[in-house]
Fold each of these.
Amino acid sequence: MIAVDWGTTHLRLYRMGADGTLSERRRSDQGTLATGGRFGAILAAEMAGWDDSHVLLCGMAGARGGWHEMPYLDCPAGLPDLARHMQRIHPPGFEHRELWFVPGLRDTSETVPDVMRGEETQLAALLDVLPGGVHQVCLPGTHSKWVTIRDGRVQRIRTAMTGELYALLRKHSILGALMSHDDSRFDAYAFEAGLRRSAEPGGLLHHLFGVRTAGLSGQFAEAALPSYLSGLLVGHELHECGLAADRPRPAQVHLIGSERLLGVYARALTTLEIGVQRHPEDLAARGLHLLWTRRMQAAGQRAPAPPA
Amino acid sequence: MIAVDWGTTHLRLYRMGADGTLSERRRSDQGTLATGGRFGAILAAEMAGWDDSHVLLCGMAGARGGWHEMPYLDCPAGLPDLARHMQRIHPPGFEHRELWFVPGLRDTSETVPDVMRGEETQLAALLDVLPGGVHQVCLPGTHSKWVTIRDGRVQRIRTAMTGELYALLRKHSILGALMSHDDSRFDAYAFEAGLRRSAEPGGLLHHLFGVRTAGLSGQFAEAALPSYLSGLLVGHELHECGLAADRPRPAQVHLIGSERLLGVYARALTTLEIGVQRHPEDLAARGLHLLWTRRMQAAGQRAPAPPA
């Protein structure tokens, strides 16, 4: 089978055996925003030479304005629910393959709904191995996802616009103007000062102005200010979105994402004396394979034999 | 005398009699960011035809990188303190005038300092007329100022980056992409929904993502989303920066600023059952005149006679 994780800025393909062995991977920057609507042609080109008959897709390609709008599945939802609500599509040019889409998830427990598309396949892989009980998962990024899992089902989703706000403030705000352009140097002292500041009264809008005065008053050097801002934002995300809502605090948080981001979040959680367990970003491949297996089993279909 | 309020994006001049009567006003968009360092030439041109010998300046022209860096005066500070710490400058070309700068104010009661430059002259006018006791003042804007006055002195300053963040999110974020470009239509229902949302758990970073889902799920139309975002941001500013820190809640807040912004903040405060008293933006002229009078009195100098 071929597992496809198609987000707004990336397209990742995994070729997997029936037993879940990953044999090949491909990656391109033709995210849904860069397709110009040519979803079928791009996917066909990316799969060239892979003749597997089953293709399972997740991510923003299934959003409104994407290739095929998949309705959201409401929480709580587990592996069997996700597998059952997959939809087969029949685009021209793919007559010799079976293309399936995984639904996104929606949490309607607040006055405004929260949603995810794509991350549910990473969670699917986790759901398969986690014991019963309550688990807290964080998928940091442009839009960080905080997920509560209870007894094998995704129960709560909370998204924080942390990564996007960091980028906006760096590029376009009066704060960015104070900082050096180089983001690569991580300053642990400034990051932790930002974390501490986030726990003080005053709120994020006030603390953000403080980044300016901290810079102007010489509390932090230009080169350290991006780390201070990062600590401030991650701290607010943790206190208000990730941890506060689920008292008592979890002893451990599962982190899924890129190594660099996980390092930042692990540091913040460790500072709060919360343990972390890291999982790689390509958990999506395993999740997609699991969902496909479930679906095939439920349909009484036998998974095709692994290539000879 | 001539009172000059020189901020980053505006330059306002007021010609006033010794008794404080405003006889003429001029306004230009040559804020300090647009001067290219030609402060003296620009001011001389703007004052053309006004032969008054005393000129009193406030605002970002007194900031680092401005015309003349004025040190901050630490809170608590009242009218006499501001008057005493004014500084005379002697730039070339102004030999026949006396030019004075008003210092900005700094509050060091938090781990990160908070500051203002320019607003202290609007506050000076208010300090002159307010009775003793505690008063809460809000100057909404790109960087909203919340000020606690106690017995005639500015005691606390809290700045919230509300206006700048609104503009950033409208122009550059994934939220702005969902909204109509027209900001002029105020939607009271959406604004108040945003206000209510700001009081719910989850924090600003989470609530911001909710603007997207509220739009995508059809809770609010494109044209109403800017008002929803505005309500959300103003609500967070009020709860976390303006009101929460000064329990018990004030029965009334003094608002200083443009009519349009004051309308928005008055609506938000009224929703929280807090009274408002509005003051016009050009309070700065009266404040500058007051400071000048105090300074002249303290120096034993007589104010020049009003023009015949």
Note: The two ends of chain B are 14 Å apart (CA to CA).
Amino acid sequence: MHATAPTSTLYLSAPVMAELIGRKGVGQCIASIAACIHEDFLRWPQFEKSARTANHSSEGVIELMPISDATTYTFKYVNGHPRNTRLGLPTVMAFGVLADVATGMPQLLSELTYTTALRTAAMSAVAARALARPDSRVMAIVGNGAQSEFQALAFQHLLGITTLRLFDIDPAATAKLVANLEGTGLQWMACTSVAEAVRGADIVTTLTADKARATIVTPAMVEPGMHLNAVGGDCPGKTELHADLLRQASVFVEYAPQTRVEGDIQQLPADFGVTELWQVLAGHQPGRTHAAQVTVFDSVGFALEDFSALRYMRDAAIELGLGERIALIPALADPKNLFGALHQPAATASQRVTGPGAVA
Amino acid sequence: MHATAPTSTLYLSAPVMAELIGRKGVGQCIASIAACIHEDFLRWPQFEKSARTANHSSEGVIELMPISDATTYTFKYVNGHPRNTRLGLPTVMAFGVLADVATGMPQLLSELTYTTALRTAAMSAVAARALARPDSRVMAIVGNGAQSEFQALAFQHLLGITTLRLFDIDPAATAKLVANLEGTGLQWMACTSVAEAVRGADIVTTLTADKARATIVTPAMVEPGMHLNAVGGDCPGKTELHADLLRQASVFVEYAPQTRVEGDIQQLPADFGVTELWQVLAGHQPGRTHAAQVTVFDSVGFALEDFSALRYMRDAAIELGLGERIALIPALADPKNLFGALHQPAATASQRVTGPGAVA
């Protein structure tokens, strides 16, 4: 081996990630990823950004989300298939890679199904800290599926939410959410309609999964001073908010070129005024300016949030000694001689070493 | 486990791929992948295609190449860093995934560093079968790096090339190529310039790696009836052929929207006439029309070729019982209850089963 750069990749499987999250705690993971997201959003101009690529089918969508700064590249693979649960599969599944910009070497391959749930909740909390009323204590959660517990904990830990008003068209989903929140100290009320859940809430979080132009929240439901955290509308043809609601509110987005295609604002003209959240975090643009203002975070999920989550998970895995090293890339005795490596079985076999290890 | 769909992913590491290729043979792998490419190119209109996304830095580029048909989605991660060999790393490293369009489940995660070399050579041979003179026996190879042996074997096995004229600015590269070709039956001649290598060749294959606007082959070197297999110019700012040579030849490409950005034709106006190769393979457009015609395959590498290679490697691995199953996606007792899985360590630990297995 003449190699001076490592050719192995740290691998975090879904079970290993579950162990990592269990040891750190869900609340701590969300808070730490929120800190990474906030930090990275302040460096927004340093990133090479693009709207994600999406391959659509009648059943769902598969997306790739790349982003890089001067030293680190990441991408996420993520699907959205609302009917997957009938097959025993999650609606959203994901994994991703963190790589070295200087060489292209993939340094980390990680599950991102659990991690996407954490980072989506963290992103919502980062936005709400800038946009919701500081005295917000009551949050409605419309759609009580796989993302709902993570949002509840994020808003409890990072916003001070104490009470949840819950609605789902499937009462079993709400029952699952309530069971999972036992012991968190959160108060909750199960509601029988969206309108009832939204009534009196300081923050309204929408997490519906149908790939359809839905109108979950209408202008009549909205009260002065509300912050809407609209997470479910994230795909062409998949919306949650009535267009008039958007017109009457102040709308904030992650990355405008992507949100105009995928977010609730896809219903509005391309010149509809929105503010990119990083501008608010950096102090370039105002967030909420008065207590009666209605704010909307039209969240679709942007690659930078996965960049932040991947670097947190890499550091946490190294700290805890979790993960194994895999040979995704060949270790070549002579990197100019790829063909020769195919005829040196001993040399390639020496690469089969796995076990806990650090990203160099 | 209530899951009815498998949540494990077949994983082919670089050493396992080296074993697979060793057992099948390089020539057989290239021939089989060429057959898959030809078959898939005939189904061209059935694919959802896009130009790859590229993140550029001063040292190189990292690209994502997604594509899908109605049932199968694939993507490849690939870098290009010409100075990597100084660090003991390959210039080009790659891996990829094959997934189920109906659910988004990643079914195969595979190394693609070796496989990219095989599929690039296979693609060149598929193009040359349609474009080179059938009596071609002599091929020049300009650039004798990591891709050169694969091209030599592909053209020997699939085109009937018997003699190579070799040139590289680094004589050690040529010596490596010649050593690796021992026992193949190929005749070779080491040349001291590009012009000498090209002289008298039926086919000219250019495989240079510099990320620069180079002019490796000029119009004066080109003889009537030649086929140019231009593989190295595959990135904005990275070219190999003189623009006048392109203007005087018949130019064929993989996917025009991508090649106009990345290929040698980036030097020419956006309306420069080119023919997509699939049109020739399908009989919609002529390839070579007379013996004196100069043809150019301005190859940049398109996602469909990786789609073809991934499905071949999946089938070969299953046939040979190679690979192991990994838990990239969590196996959830209740797919609607992601949060609950984080509090069931026993359930997630049961997923740690690995070993040879088939893609379901």
Note: The radius of gyration of chain A is 22 Å.
Amino acid sequence: NETAKAALGRATWKLLHTMTLRYPEDPSNDERAALNSYFHLLSRLYPCGECATEFQALLKKFPPQTSSRRAASLWLCAVHNTVNHRLHKPEFDCAHLDDEYDCGC
Amino acid sequence: NETAKAALGRATWKLLHTMTLRYPEDPSNDERAALNSYFHLLSRLYPCGECATEFQALLKKFPPQTSSRRAASLWLCAVHNTVNHRLHKPEFDCAHLDDEYDCGC
Ligand SMILES: Cc1cc2nc3c(=O)[nH]c(=O)nc-3n(C[C@H](O)[C@H](O)[C@H](O)COP(=O)(O)OP(=O)(O)OC[C@H]3O[C@@H](n4cnc5c(N)ncnc54)[C@H](O)[C@@H]3O)c2cc1C
Ligand SMILES: Cc1cc2nc3c(=O)[nH]c(=O)nc-3n(C[C@H](O)[C@H](O)[C@H](O)COP(=O)(O)OP(=O)(O)OC[C@H]3O[C@@H](n4cnc5c(N)ncnc54)[C@H](O)[C@@H]3O)c2cc1C
């Protein structure tokens, strides 16, 4: 069911981008470890087997960048673009991240 | 911005429910630890400060149930209902979980 897979993907990217864009500007070591673990656990638990396998390979090749909000959000944007490329979707311009994601917090 | 907060919440619940409904029927200790850590990390990183605080309190009161797919998905359904109650939203009938969430995996 491709529609369900796409809807799950959209929901997940939304959470992930909003999360990195609210991640601290200047994180503690503990916050850095939390973000890194979060992505690794998600890649194990993500409920689409094929996507999870690909995601795990991506994280190995491009480990999460956790040193700042900017580093984390640009890293995730690049990772999402790698997935876009594989799925023949257009590349997203990472300069527009802030306009696209509003968490309403 | 309440609209953005609601959209983020909907996206997150979708990922979480789909995840617990694909969680193993008979998880290993390692898989149990992964799911437990995942929820705790999410409650720290969730990009809505008020929601994150409430979520952390909820996890303390109702620790993640990880012994099986059924236990995890019913636990999450109950937790979501607790949030629904606080926000004056209708209670969801947890018997309908399987019909509602399809991951397309
Ligand atoms: C970790 C992960 C792995 C996945 N692996 C697979 C897979 O292997 N096979 C598969 O079929 N599907 C996979 N998916 C789903 C896939 O990535 C899409 O989510 C799905 O196909 C729906 O695509 P979409 O065109 O609606 O846009 P999505 O890719 O879901 O993006 C949603 C919105 O985010 C914005 N956006 C796009 N690119 C970026 C970017 N680089 N940075 C920030 N914002 C951006 C755009 O506004 C876009 O409309 C995966 C999803 C995730 C979260
Ligand atoms: C962890 C977390 C904490 C949150 N805390 C707050 C907060 O403190 N303040 C705040 O304003 N918002 C909070 N939110 C957002 C809030 O829960 C809703 O997501 C948001 O208000 C949008 O609500 P909705 O009516 O669209 O349905 P949602 O509650 O987002 O639910 C989406 C869909 O899931 C289904 N559903 C409903 N209940 C259940 C259930 N029990 N089990 C399974 N499926 C169900 C229904 O089909 C529903 O339409 C939180 C979200 C999350 C993920």
Note: Chain A touches chain B through 36 residues (CB under 8 Å).
